[in-house]
User: Which sequence fits this backbone?
């Protein structure tokens, strides 16, 4: 089974194609281009390089959040279009879970942080247990101080990753020697990791139709919050 997987929930746009759990190719852009400009050419280049077309893809996977409202909508709309045109199934992947898969085989606590602005981060806490990723804290939009409170209740070193690390570096460093920061090549969203999660879900039969794809924003948009005020 060939799976095309993308993530557009942050400033990073990334795509990967795997076949039966083997990565065939990956393309990542982190240069500030809007996803509406860079995503389709990136996917096209990846397919051309691998001598594939959309018809060769058996399922389409997309990170459905949390993340940038606009970015998620672009990614989901793109995958909906592919699924509709090719009549193929889709796979929904948590952005935070896919980030944790960057470090699937570490024994550290894995703490992805995505900058959610307004003094919040999108976060979940994971730990490997019996060879599988265990969720310690479900995905949430939360103040960084509360993330640190949760981590202080746990034992062991904590591996932080994501674009929410730098804006909250003082809080991260408050854990002192317990805090580790991911190397840059595994510190951001990766199409390969989205594809790997999607492959695991595919083996479990966790497919959805393109029509049912939806984003998990975890909180209301800025416009909705302003309207409520």
Assistant:
């Amino acid at each position: 089974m060939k799976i095309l997987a993308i993530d557009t929930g942050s400033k990073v746009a990334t795509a990967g194609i795997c076949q039966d759990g083997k990565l065939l190719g990956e393309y990542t852009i982190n240069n500030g281009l809007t996803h509406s400009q860079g995503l389709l050419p990136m996917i096209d280049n990846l397919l051309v390089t691998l001598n594939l077309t959309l018809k060769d893809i058996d399922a389409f996977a997309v990170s459905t959040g949390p993340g940038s409202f606009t970015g998620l909508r672009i990614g989901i709309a793109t995958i909906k279009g592919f699924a509709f045109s090719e009549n193929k199934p889709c796979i929904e992947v948590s952005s935070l879970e896919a980030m944790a898969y960057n470090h699937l085989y570490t024994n550290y606590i894995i703490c992805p942080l995505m900058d959610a602005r307004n003094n919040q981060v999108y976060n979940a806490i994971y730990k490997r247990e019996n060879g599988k990723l265990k969720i310690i804290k479900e995905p949430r939009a939360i103040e960084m101080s509360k993330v640190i409170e949760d981590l202080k209740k746990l034992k062991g070193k904590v591996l932080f990753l994501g674009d929410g690390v730098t804006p909250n570096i003082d809080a991260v460093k408050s854990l002192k020697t317990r805090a580790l920061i991911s190397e840059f090549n595994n510190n951001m969203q990766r199409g390969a990791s989205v594809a790997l999660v999607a492959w695991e879900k595919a083996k479990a039969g966790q497919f959805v139709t393109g029509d049912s794809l939806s984003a998990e924003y975890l909180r209301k948009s800025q416009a909705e919050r302003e309207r409520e005020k």
